[in-house]
Amino acid sequence: MDAQTLREIQGYGAFIFLAVCAALLYGYYFHLYRSEKSGRRNYERYSDLALKDGIDEEILESASVDENAKKEK
Questions:
Q1: Dihedral sign, CA of 30, 59, 57, 53?
Q2: CB burial readout 10-42, b (16+ within 10 A) else e
Q3: 43-65 burial, b for 16+ CB within 10 Å, e for fewer?
Q4: For residue 60, what are the contacts with CB-CB under 8 A and spacing of at least 6?
Q5: CA 72 remoteness from chain centre
């Protein structure tokens, strides 16, 4: 293979990689948007987590021992 062919392959590879990354990013954004609209998560509470990180602050989500055991199975 000569240098010109290798450059073309690298160009196509970079374009495909960028397109896949953009598709994954938009898919993740859509997932977050849909899960917040359906009420499964409230991401506005998580946005304040860095500001309200004191030991006496309210817990965002409480996880009991039974819930953790179900998740592991």
A1: negative
A2: eeeeeeeeeeeeeeeeeeeeeeeeeeeeeeeee
A3: eeeeeeeeeeeeeeeeeeeeeee
A4: 45, 46, 49
A5: 21
Tokens of 52: 């309200």
Task: Categorize the per-residue pLDDT at 71 as very low, low, confident or very high, splitting at 50, 70 and 90.
Answer: low
The residue whose two tokens read 């989500």 is 61
Residues 29 and 14 sit within 8 Å (Cβ to Cβ): no
For the segment 17-32, the average pLDDT, to the nearest whole number, is 96
